[in-house]
Amino acid sequence: MTPELASSLHAAIAAEVEAAPTPEHALEAAVRRLAASVPAYTWVGIYLLDGRELVLGPFVGKPSPHTRIPLDRGICGAAASSGRTIVVDDVNADPRYLACSLETRSEIVVPIKAGDRVLGEIDIDSDQPAAFGDSDRRLLEGVAEALARRIATRAIS
Ligand code: SME
Question: Is any ligand 1 atom within 6 A of the Cβ of residue 137?
């Protein structure tokens, strides 16, 4: 993705997230818009932290078997526990990877945080190897910040 596309998408999605009537609509809108705008994003979903587990929220793509992921499992668990974005260029070379689809080749997981508190994360899979570059990371970290502003007040432990 070019930096220009990342920045225009970020502006459009942040506006949609802010205008959404409820936090749930904001999460849905972000997922739908990301999946519709970037062909390389094969599966786009949001997990929300519930105690020591991540619970699958809205997503676009094939149903995932991983609807609840403990914090000590998967790339999703690693991103939530560290509070940092994780980019995996080749999922088959990463022992942490929990498979969702046989076609998936690369993945990015971006925590949604209020200060240091992790509320959830954006998880995106691609059927292309090494699909996620710096512009994708910046776009998704920006979307995660916009989402955090909408969901920070929800009662999530
Ligand atoms: N691949 C993730 C699991 C979620 S599915 O991709 C939807 C992981 O390793 O945590």
Answer: no
